[in-house]
């Protein structure tokens, strides 16, 4: 393994430097013990370290594009069959290795991300059929093309499913063998030291008077304190650290699979419905109760969480002055709810971004408005309609509009059955007559006014065609006109009544104005798994990027002069300045227990025996 930091290393600068056993405290070039390989010899091609340099990771070896797997084909039909079988098997293995490689997995993940873009930009039939139909009507060329390509149902299309399945196969095919291999590494021991430690990228050596056995015991203790897995193998201590790198790598891959499964699960079994409830009204979680509802392809009504709730009251307060005038300060709905058909009733408050959690369902507060209470009477004074009618806001100050429909029980002045319809606009805070505006000046009910236009005839609800409950179909309706022949219209304050001409009845704007709240009930199975998978992926990726897998060997042998030669070397999966620095720290700790032998004949006899001796530097580290 080549070392790009060789320019900073000089093995003959100071005594006790790596690869030498010089006498400390002298400036002369020390005499080497044995024949250690000079650093220059280690800067060439990567050495063959055998088992010591293997299995630093579980990544599969890169395979080039193959030539012929079958080798020489023997003559005859048997030879052709044998050669074809070998060739087919070889290509299948090559394709499998490519599919389970990290490169292909990243490409598939990128393609999956690209494939999801049309699903967010183009209307999807699974969520809004009306928008899809409208898109096809407006785009006569793109509509049929998108339909053939499956862009109106991206997540269930053949091409998206193919990418999804291939990504699953790629990740699983990558994880399973690597997990098995990593398990074997954890169960095994660090490999024994190579014959020539001088060939490793980080190296240190010195001579000591301590016995080899004492040096190995000291090394075992030091490495154990630094959380290395260490054991004695022959004349050396072998140690390894950084298994969390590979564990993080595997955890990242597993987390990706969890994310993909959670995403698919959530898309197939999700549900989302909206319901508008007036104060005093209730809701039961069944399909027929929703105003609108959409779900995944595999969702059934049996998957709905059984619960019900009643809206007791809605509270909304607003800023009265300043630049944020009209901004909501309090926005909450007080409810009572129960689980199942016979569950105990409980109280709760739902606020914006603070949903009610009921098993796997979440109930969000998403909208708010007013529902004026009106009473409609026929010409004889009989009440034919009395209810709170929710109107939809059209601006930030809750100016609201809608329709009041009297479907049954009404008879006109001639005694004929008819239906009544009123177009209604509610202004919570009216600016006043002559101000030239019918838009509210503030969201609260400071000066409410209800503007009405009256119609009679056939509302069209019996035709079997779905209608918007907030709009009037005036095709078969006639407007009431006053005595002057003008269109009948009125602005009412709470408590006032508008009389219909010709003795056809009246409509009263009651003083009681209720509020309504819009709720969204969401079931998102797999969201918890998706969150857990995302967090695991982040931590796994961080571990695989910032933790280095490395091995350290400490060899202690008796030299020709009777002194013990201590050699320490380290090997990492990739070159890093931290490895020589860490080896230098470990060498210093071992050196404290087995200090350098002082054999300088010119040494000061008065020097204290416990004076500090030079600590060997790890070759490969930068000079400071």
Topology:
Layout: H1 76-99, H2 102-121, H3 129-138, H4 142-149, H5 158-187, E1 202-208, H6 212-225, E2 229-233, E3 236-241, H7 243-269, E4 271-278, E5 282-284, E6 292-295, E7 307-318, E8 328-339, E9 346-351, E10 356-358, E11 361-377, E12 383-388, E13 392-393, E14 400-406, E15 419-427, E16 449-457, E17 477-479, E18 489-492, E19 497-499, E20 506-523, H8 527-546, E21 550-558, E22 564-572, H9 578-593
Description of the molecule:
This protein is an alpha+beta fold. The protein has helices at 76-99, 102-121, 129-138, 142-149, 158-187, 212-225, 243-269, 527-546, 578-593; strands spanning 202-208, 229-233, 236-241, 271-278, 282-284, 292-295, 307-318, 328-339, 346-351, 356-358, 361-377, 383-388, 392-393, 400-406, 419-427, 449-457, 477-479, 489-492, 497-499, 506-523, 550-558, 564-572. The strands form 4 sheets. Strands 4, 6, 10, 11, 12, 19 and 20 form a 7-stranded antiparallel β-sheet that branches. Strands 13, 14, 15, 16, 17 and 18 form a 6-stranded antiparallel β-sheet that branches. Helix 2 runs antiparallel to helix 5 (158-187). The protein is elongated, with a radius of gyration of 41 Å.
